[in-house]
Every structure is written in C-alpha cells, then in structure tokens.
Amino acid sequence: MSVILTDRFGRVHDYLRISVTDRCNLRCVYCMPEEGMQFEPDERLLTFDEIVEVVRVLAALGLRKLRITGGEPLVRKNIEQLIARLSAIDGIEDIALTTNGIFFASKAEQLRAAGLTRINISLDSLRSNRFSLITRGGDIKRVLEAIDAAYRVGLDPIKLNVVLMKGLNDDEIDDFLLMTIDRKIQVRFIEYMPIGHDDEGWKSKYVPLSTVTDRCAARGWPVQPYGEIYGNGPSQNFKIEGALGTFGLIHPVSDHFCETCNRLRLTSDGNIKPCLYWSDEFNVRRYIGDDQALADLFLKALNVKPESHEMAKALLNEQQSHIPTLRRMSQIGG
Questions:
Q1: Pairing verdict, β 236-240 and 223-225
Q2: Is 275 annotated as a binding residue?
Q3: Is 327 assigned a ligand-binding role in the annotation?
Q4: For the chain, is the Cβ count within 10 Å smaller at the N or the C terminus?
Q5: Is 148 buried (19+), middle (13-18) or exposed (0-12) by CB count in 10 A?
Q6: Could you say which residues bind [4Fe-4S] cluster 1 here (predicted)?
C-alpha cells in the first residue's frame, strides 16, 4: 500500500493516540466524575493482537508516531509487552506515554527497555493537599518519583501536563514556571476543554493561557519563543531566559491548532475518532484481518474529519456545525 493518510484539507496524519483502557486509579475533576462511571468490560477492550494489527496496517500508510493513553494506561496488565510489540513494527519511530505517574516509577526500566521513548506526566498541582483534591485521592509523592524515574532511565523530553482551572490551580502558575529554571523539563499548560460535558459548568473553570505569559511579565522574566521540542504537536513553546527547561501553551479553545492536526485516535473499545471533540466514530473490530478494508476505514474516517473542532464557539455559546461528543476524556484517550 502506498496511500498516505491525508484528509480533505491536506493534513497528513502520521500520529495515532491509542487508548488501552478507560479505567483509571484516579478521578481527576476534569476527566471523569467521582462515581457513576460505566467502564467497558475487559472483553470489549481491544486486545494487544488487535492493536498491533491496526498499527501494522497504518505504518504501511505512513504512521510513524504512537502515544499510549487511557484512562490510565499503566492499569492495563503487561502494557510493556504491547509497547515492545509496537516498537518492533517497521516504520514506527516513536512511542510516547501519557500517565498520571502513580505506577510509573516501578515500571520505568521495563517500559524504557520495551521501546518507550517519551513521557507526559499529568501534574495539576504542586501542593499535596490540593493535588489530592483535584485527583480525588492521588499521592503527589509518587508523581514526583515518576519524574525522577523518567530522568533516570533517559526518557527525553519529559513533559508535565497542567490543566489550568480557575480557582483551583491558577495561583500556582509561577511555581510551575520555576520548575523549568533548574531542570530540563517542559511544563505544558493546557486550557480546560468542554469534552464530555452536556452542561456549561466547564466555563466557570476556564482560564485563557495568556495568563501564563502575563505572569512572566509580572515577575520580570524575559521570555523567548522556543521551537525545538520533539513531538510537541500543538504546543506553543517558550523559554525563560537562562532556564534549562521550557514551557508550552496548548490552547484548543482560545486559539485552536486544527490546521496542523496530524493525529487520529483509537479508543480502547476499538473506535477511530477523527476529531477529539466531535462524536464521529468508526469501529475497527470487524475489519481486523483484512488489511485493505482496515486501511479503507481509516481513509473514510479521515474523509469526515472537520476542518476545526469549534470549541471556541462552545465558549461563546455560538451554533456549532457538528455534534460534540458526550464521552468523557478518560473514555477517549485525550
């Protein structure tokens, strides 16, 4: 097959985010409710064999980068075996992991040996009590241990994902920026998104990311654009003068990055999602084993991918052109 994964707008897709589970050991306030979630039974999750087959077919079409997500991907048993199998597929050059970090330190060496190249760790507060509140029970010490373990096994770059929320952690922006001074790390500030919300409650927590650069100006920290971070996708990158690390701004609501989107998503129950925000999905299961039919399904999904997710319209209460998903972030894989 020589087809390239290109959509109607000329965007070439070489990146697949693979959710391996919708389950998580935490209940972060922006990701899932405290209780009442209906999780997929194990038999409905894609098997490792099925995931490998999907990636093998897509690698022949130009797929090069993977990200393993959840839920929390490290609650899936033997995840290092999947990473090893994926890293052995011809054409796959990069495998990243998004994790809450709680279980990472004990698995870091296994995952690195299996072929993991990069890591994103969620860390929405540096204060232990507040971190426990946002995650509904998480232990920040274990996340800090995960960061140290990522350094120890040589993962690069190491990124910290910070979802900014008004009244919850927006007073910690300075503290997160200070982390970049002495460590080669990237702190990525992410706008609160209306994913899986059928109400307007998310707007009360929304913080525009101009707040971050405003804080730099208030502290007198000279900031310069910085563009050399591998796999950074939609992040606008900056560096405080003299710092070892960097910070990034990911603002899907106020300044969307759809025109350069190069990613597709595969949910843990086997659905291709062309766009994170819209409800369109295509199930892969009955096509596995037929390489051409599976390739055609992905091309079909690309053909309906919209030019924009239109989250800004949701913020402004404007009419949207598609139906937003009601799946929670944990069910999609981010």
A1: antiparallel
A2: yes
A3: no
A4: N
A5: exposed
A6: 24, 28, 31
Nearest CA to 48 out of 13, 15, 88, 14 is that of 88
C-alpha dist (Å) from residue 170 to 178, 189, 285: 14, 10, 42
Residue 270: strand pairing partners:
none
pLDDT score for 198? 47
More confident residue, 84 or 312: 84
57 φ/ψ angles, rounded to the nearest 5 degrees: -65, -45
Supply the pLDDT for residue 132.
98
Rounded Cα gap, residues 49 and 47, in angstroms:
5
Residue 15 marked in a binding site: no
Q: What is the pLDDT of residues 279-331, one digit of tens each?
A: 788 999 999 999 999 999 999 999 988 887 555 444 445 555 566 666 666 66
pLDDT tens per residue, range 205-226 = 889 899 999 999 999 999 999 9
CB 150 within 8 A of CB 158: yes
Known binding residue 215? Answer is no
Q: Pairing between strand 158-163 and 118-122?
A: parallel
How many residues make up the chain in this entry? 334
The contacts of residue 232 (CB under 8 Å, 6+ apart) are 186, 248
261 labelled binding-site residue: yes
Helix 79-87 to helix 48-59 angle (10° resolution) is 20
69 has binding-site annotation: no
Q: What are phi and psi of 130, to 5 degrees?
A: -70, -40
pLDDT in tens, 88-121: 999 999 999 999 999 999 999 999 999 999 999 9
159 annotated among ligand-binding-site residues:
yes
- Residue 36 CB coordination number (10 Å): 6
Q: Does 216 belong to an annotated binding site?
A: no
Element at 87 (helix H, strand E): helix 79-87
Give residue 192's pLDDT.
Answer: 84
d(CA 148, CA 318): 44
- Tens-place pLDDT, residues 112-161: 999 999 999 999 999 999 999 999 999 999 999 999 999 999 998 899 99
Q: Is 289 annotated as a binding residue?
A: no
